[in-house]
Amino acid sequence: MNKKLIFSLAFIAALPAPRPAAAQDESSEFWSFMAEEASNLTVAADKPETVFDSVSNVTVIDRTMIERYNFASVADALETLPGMMVLRTYLLHNLPTIRGALQEHYADKVLVMINNVPMWNAVTGEGDLDRVGIDAVERIEVLLGPASVLYGSNALTGAINIVLREPAGENKSLGLLSGGLGSAAGGYGGNADVSRAGGLYAWKGKKASYTLAADSYNRAQPMFRFRDEARAANAVKEYLNARSFNFTGSRGNDTVLVNVSRGEQNFLGNTITLASGELFSQVREAALASYLHDFAPGWGDLKYTVTYDWQRRNIPRDANDNVRSDIEGARFVNTLSGRRKLGKGFYLEGGGTHEYRHARSYLNYYSNTDVPVWDNSLRDRVSAESSAHSQLGYESGDWKLLAGSRYTHNTGAGDNLSSRVSAVRLFDEGHSLKAMFSQSFRSPTPFERFFKPAPVTVVGNPGLKPEKAETFELSCLASGGRFFGHFTAYHTRYRDSIFRNLGNFTRDGTVYTNINFYANAPAYSSSGVELEGRYESRRTRAFAAATFLRGSRGDEHTIPAPGVFGLTGGSSWNFKYVPAYTVSAGFSRDIGNFYVSSRVTGYGRNRSLRGDIGSQFWADAGAGYKKGAVRHALAVRNLTGRAVMFPEYVRQRVVETVPLYTGRRLEYNFEYRF
Amino acid sequence: MKPALLSAFLLFPAAPAYPAAPENTAAVLSLDSGAYLEAFSAFQAAYGGEVVRYDLSRQKPVIDEKVKLLVTFGGKAAGYSYPAGINIIYCLAPGLSVKPAAREAREVRIALTPAFPATLAKIRRIQPGLKHLRILWSAPGYAPYEQAAMEEGARQGVQVTPFRLEGPDSLPGALRGALGEADALWLPPDPLIVTKENLRILREFSWDNNIPFYGSTKSMTREGALASFGISFAEIGKAAARAAAALDRGEAVPGTVYPERTELTLNAAAAKKLGIEFPGPVLDEAGYLFP
Q: Using the beta-carbon criterion (under 8 Å), do A31 and B166 form an inter-chain contact?
């Protein structure tokens, strides 16, 4: 399956046409003729797929949906999808979470890409949803389920592809200026600070095109009274700012992508104490350059991609901002991939990837003098990962079949073989049934293997094995008229999951007691169903999504009592902290040049380490005015103003919950197109 | 047997046959059924003798050395590699991009639509106030006609803007871009964008925004185009027979042959939605009026 194409779909194109009451032979002959000629004109690799015939479980958020629901960021948009939650830990915001597979401070189980180019931190593994501003996004494509055969390591539970905007057709340009004000935005205490600012210019000719975009996004949560692990209470005001610059250009067979971003956010302390870094800015910086050459051979498709992805993260470690950690690393990736038609509906895809990873530093230093304090055992850790993959596919009018494997060798984490098998039965252009089996893996990051700070708070485990996931899915898609429905049932088995354990651990002959350390978990599993419905007419759009999942306790482990405040310990497992039910729904309607929209998200009853958490609901409402080149939008975020809480599932000591949203916010945005 | 195919068999034996050399002629069909077989049957009937035919979906054609003229039906057949020195007539290859320099012998393409000047004139009769016509296309075979279409538009006082779509999915975006810039759309029989789904999108866009869209086949009119000015598969076969006979006689044949008989079809429901009244002569001329 071609990477670029697996996501190539547009929801509107997925809706089938109403059929004539009595199609005549002459007409069906014409449509057969058109279909036959289209199949002849379109090489398989360039065929746009729809959600109906994709051999993966994919869904998409398009530009219209982004505008109608006033999504302020990629993370904001993602949380409307079934099977997807955007969570936070006490250290990091905006962690995309697929089918309840929790991630701790590093969102390294979901691959994040820009225009199909993967990006993640070479030291800690996390992708960053804030590397592209929402105004530069044409659509967001999401693949749910293991995807290592396609993308290699890190696509453990799924993949997110952020596609940049471009003009609608040849000899067209698109210019955009946007901005906004938000209540308490910016994190600097103002009440109506600039919440967004951006510009975009894109042009497309016959053989060349480019998109240039710069965005700034500031989000601040209203003040929130937070009680930390020392039971000290204080007013906390969390913010997240992101600035990004994106350029993509193509000429002939060559394509270049450049992404530069800088984000700042504060958090609830390194150890959930307000004396360990809260209020000070955690900085994430990144630069990515990628070049793709399409050889366009006569026999099929052959592409070479080279990517350099540099990332840096700087974290305050104490209440005085005296000591900070500087985390820096880079990845250098070479990929050759091709596809060839074999005749009679068969095709073969294959390729090889070599990735060089350099964890340059995780250095603690005095912020006022830059004097190093401790290297955390993570200085110049280098690893390499090589992989080869091959897939054999078959396409007929009614069936699409695909089977393939990827073999990976990692110099630090050994070998892995991941496979997939998919079968799609297309009943017609608007009805299909899919059965899929897919495996994936993730190599442990240098941080998870080698980290050793002073004083010791968490210890890496050099003996970690790659974590793996395998999923069986059955998916049914149907559309009729303006309605679209997608139902999926799945069963996932997780093996050797890498998680942050708590207990006694020995490394390099040193015994650490009651310490956080990384470990591979015993196997566990989850089963779930996802239901998505959409309605779309010229003036009205609506969606509803619901998920139910149930996870096993195979990874259950004991959490010792924290030894303070008379608190007890307990036991912990991944799905303890995942609500069984999640729902989201939205509605938007155009009324002349105006439009209104609203959406609601809810998580069912949930548990923390020692207690229960009631259902959590939050809703946004918005209204806009659009005429000609100008669009104005007003949105109220978290309409009720109630704090939305989620279990604290990483540290598991004293604090039971952390806030996803702390109160009501008001945002105004405008856009001018030229 | 399908009615259209039956018609072809019944009617074309009575059609005038052209002096031909069937023993030196062969036909290659992408598929030995449907539109391809209908056009071939009409071709054979008009050509005046039994012509050897190959079904490319079942076998590779083994072209006899005595064959001097090949008639292909379908894009797959057109794209097949044939011996040099054989004249070729391409039928039913809507996205075909012919490279004349690549062959020594004559190559003739039978158009799937009437010549654009005639199409534009017909559209103007239905919509006299037409100022801006946007042509939506995608297949490479249509690229060479862009300039000529714009020039013809200038001759007839209409600003014609060919707009290339990257694929079926890009239609909604292209339509958004047409708002305020076009007062009619024309869709040639381009397989890369002519799908039922796209016609539904076009129909809704057209009716909601009062921008008529014109098709190029009867089936497009059935799906909501205000009108189509097209050519039947059988007529394409007949035109191929005329061209083949001319080549046999060594006469000059243009690179693109436009079939003589065209068919105008109208959609009354679309006209009502768009507030357009078909002129009487147009109604009289129409081969079919969908209610």
A: no
**Residue A643, pLDDT score:** 93
Q: Which among A13, A20, A168 has CB closest to B222?
A: A20
Q: What is the DSSP letter of A463?
A: T
> What average pLDDT does the structure give for chain A?
88
Structure tokens at B144: 């060479």
Cis peptide before A297 (omega within 30 of 0): no
Q: Is B41 helix (H, G, I), strand (E, B) or coil?
A: helix
Per CB-CB distance under 8 Å, the chain A contacts of B74 are: 36-37, 40
Contacts of B198 in chain A (CB under 8 A): 13
Q: Which residues of A touch B196 (CB under 8 A)?
A: 16-17, 19, 31, 429
For residue range B180-224, what is the model confidence (pLDDT) as tens digits? Answer: 788 899 999 888 888 888 888 889 888 888 899 999 988 899 988
Secondary structure (3-state) at A293:
strand
* Per-residue pLDDT tens over the stretch B44-103: 999 888 888 898 887 778 888 888 899 999 988 887 777 777 889 999 988 766 554 445
Q: Are residues B57 and B199 in the same domain?
A: no
Dihedrals φ, ψ of A504, to 5°? -95, 140
Tell me, what CATH number does B108's domain have? 3.40.50.2300
B66 shares a domain with B209? no
Domain A3-561 has CATH 2.40.170.20: yes
What pLDDT is stored for residue B8 in this prediction? 42
Task: Indicate if B240 and B281 belong to the same structural domain.
Answer: no
Give the DSSP per-residue string, A496-519.
Answer: S-EEEEEEEEEETTEEEEEEEEEE
| Beta carbons within 10 angstroms of residue A162's beta carbon | 26
Token couple for A313: 């993260």
Are residues B145 and B14 located together in one domain of the fold? no
Q: What is the mean pLDDT of residues A467-479?
A: 94
CA distance A198 to A177: 6
Output the pLDDT for position A184.
65
8-state DSSP, A109? S
**Cβ atoms of B26 and B64 closer than 8 Å:** yes
Give me the domain span that covers residue B99: 3-112+232-257
Residues A206-250 pLDDT 10s: 789 999 999 999 888 888 888 998 898 888 888 899 999 999 999
The CB density around residue A670, as the number of other CB atoms within 10 Å, is 17
For residue A137, what are the β-bridge partners? A164
Contact call for residues A109 and A103 (beta carbons, < 8 A): yes
Q: pLDDT band for B168, please (50, 70, 90 cuts).
A: low
Residues paired with A612 in a beta bridge: A607
Q: Which residues of A touch B (CB under 8 A)?
A: 8-10, 12-13, 15-20, 25-27, 29-38, 40-42, 46, 48, 168-170, 172, 429, 538
The model's confidence at residue A96, banded by pLDDT at 50, 70 and 90, is very high
Q: Say if residue B15 is in the same domain as residue B148.
A: no
Tally of domains in chain B? 2
What amino acid occupies position A39?
Answer: S
**pLDDT tens digits for A7-59?**
443 333 333 333 333 334 467 788 888 888 887 765 433 444 667 778 888 88
Residue whose token pair is 């095709």? A347
Same domain as B273, residue B253: no
CA distance A129 to A107: 10
- Lookup: tokens for A419: 């496979």
Q: Do A27 and B170 touch (CB under 8 A)?
A: no
